Amino acid sequence: MNDAFARTPQPPYYAVIFASQRNGEDDAGYAQAADHMVELASQQPGFLGVESTRGADGFGITVSYWESEEAIAAWRQHAEHAATRAYGRAHWYQHYELRVAKVERAYGKPANSKQTST
Amino acid sequence: MNDAFARTPQPPYYAVIFASQRNGEDDAGYAQAADHMVELASQQPGFLGVESTRGADGFGITVSYWESEEAIAAWRQHAEHAATRAYGRAHWYQHYELRVAKVERAYGKPANSKQTST
């Protein structure tokens, strides 16, 4: 098991795909806020999980998973999230792209699993 | 402009979200194959773009974007892709999760854009 993976239910559910290029400023403030936003998101109704990574070049992808469009809309309107989002857009990102998508199919291979037998 | 971002059209279109934990083996072989797969994918009908990153912990997210489910199915069946995928599942990943999703909404902020005027 690896905590970097979201343990989502069977589809359908929703994904918010957030790709961003950090501008290299305020690493400490950004890291603290990012951690806090994940913690806060995980307490919201309809939150299913999150997967996030960022390379040494500052390009990152965060995918959060939600039960419904309504859950995404409620999180979007959450006051502290909205304030942090507005601050982040002005101070932390050179560029970002956000996409909302409906997950229709999913499969994977956990660590140490085997799909063949001998 | 930043080449790490996919320049996708207006939704709807499809996203293949691939989250993976590298096992730390064969970095050179993996990097070469990953680059080649992106190059090959970009030549397929219906390919719209790809965004990919991996952190120092070996956890990565790659999102490829496609015009249709049919384009995803054709790429899935591409012989060289299928062979590399099978090899990779056996040799490069400790764990992976793949999700296919329909992008319904999208927006972003490119570098140097302003949404307010003075």
TrEMBL record, chains A, B:
UniProt keyword annotation of Iron present: no
Q: Which GO terms describe its molecular function?
A: monooxygenase activity
Listed InterPro entries? ABM_dom (IPR007138), Dimeric_a/b-barrel (IPR011008), Jasmonate_Hydroxylase-like (IPR052936)
Q: Where does the record place the ABM domain?
A: 13-100
Q: Which UniProt keywords apply?
A: Monooxygenase, Oxidoreductase
**Which PANTHER family does the UniProt record give?**
ABM DOMAIN-CONTAINING PROTEIN, BLL5343 PROTEIN
Know the name of this protein? Answer: Antibiotic biosynthesis monooxygenase
Q: Which organism is it from?
A: Lysobacter niastensis
